[in-house]
Design a protein that fits this description.
This protein is of the alpha+beta class. The protein is built from 4 helices and 2 strands, in the order αααββα.
């Protein structure tokens, strides 16, 4: 199930990164509010992979004396999210019949 949920988690990340800048600890809380229980050891590599693949871009900022990395969706990430939304609609329609 973990690999299936990882796809959902990536879509959540792109969705929120489209609305506003996100950072790891906030995203972890958001995912937990939806019932996802993942570790930072899963979340941060996922964020880094999305950035490496060109779906997110990041910037660093010192907050409370600590370096925090903020992520925002890229145009490629926005395209991927829109395609995912189309597939989600189709899948939900089929699965929920």
């Amino acid at each position: 199930m973990r690999s299936i949920f990882l796809g959902f988690i990536k879509i959540h990340i792109l969705h929120h990164a489209e609305k506003e800048e996100i950072y790891g600890a906030w995203m972890m809380e958001e995912l937990e509010s939806h019932g996802y229980r993942i570790s930072f050891g899963t979340l941060y590599p996922t964020l880094h992979k999305l950035e490496k693949d060109g779906y997110l871009k990041s910037r660093k900022k010192i907050v409370g004396g600590k370096l925090r990395k903020y992520y925002r969706i890229t145009p490629d990430g926005r395209d991927a999210l829109e395609k995912a939304k189309e597939k989600i609609k189709e899948l939900v329609g089929e699965v929920m019949k």
